[in-house]
Amino acid sequence: MEGSPPPASPAGLSAYVAVSQLLGLTLLATTGAWLGRYRGGVAWHGHLQFNVHPLCMVLGMVFLQGDALLVYRVFRHEAKRSTKALHALLHGLALVIALVGIVAVFESHRAKGIPNMYSLHSWCGMAAFVLYLLQWLLGCGFFLLPGASFSLRSRYKPLHVFLGIALLALSIAACLLGITEMLLFNISDSYSRFVPEGVLANTLGVLLVAFGLVVGYVLTRDDWKCPPLAEELALSMDFKTLTEGESPGGGSQ
User: Fold this and answer.
1) In this structure, is residue 146 part of a structural domain?
2) DSSP readout, 142-170?
3) What is the value of pTM for the model shown?
4) Tell me: the pLDDT tens digits for 178-209?
């Protein structure tokens, strides 16, 4: 009814979303502290350009990607068109920031004469970015832009949902590999002695895993999924009528 208060969120959802945001902001602060305290800071030109890479990848491929996935849980009763637009916008912003990070590491390696794309970290990271870009393009084509039929959307949606969670997991795995690689390159002689930089970087890794677990839990709770809106139910009924030969009243034609 018009003027009635919006339905309340399911019990526990708001708390888990709040925990995910606290973890996300903490991991960003931890990344900044690590780069600023032990790696000299961040700059686009000069020897500090490489540090743009981990900061952008954590911000884009983990934090913003996770938040984009949570859009459908947080804005459960908003207009679906607006929710889709916000979902696509956050993913698009994450891609742009990640691209900046990729350009930074390639330019840094070129300036220092370091080869590219030889490590497991770089393979997993590039795979995550390319698949993420494809996922975003397909998602916009199927769900945001007009043209795709209800049948195609229904068939692609389960894969789209699965890839969303899988790509967040792959992105976090690539970050963990990158953290380990960075530590072994820079403090391999003292890493095993629990030096402060190693402890801080390991803490960042734990925060990344925790963020992924909390976001994954929120996304996989069936009772926390976004309820279908009235227009979606109507479309579903129309599609069933066309494909199964049933009338909306339940009788066969």
Assistant:
1) yes
2) IIISTT--HHHHHHHHHHHHHHHHHHHHH
3) 0.87
4) 999 999 999 999 999 999 999 999 999 999 99
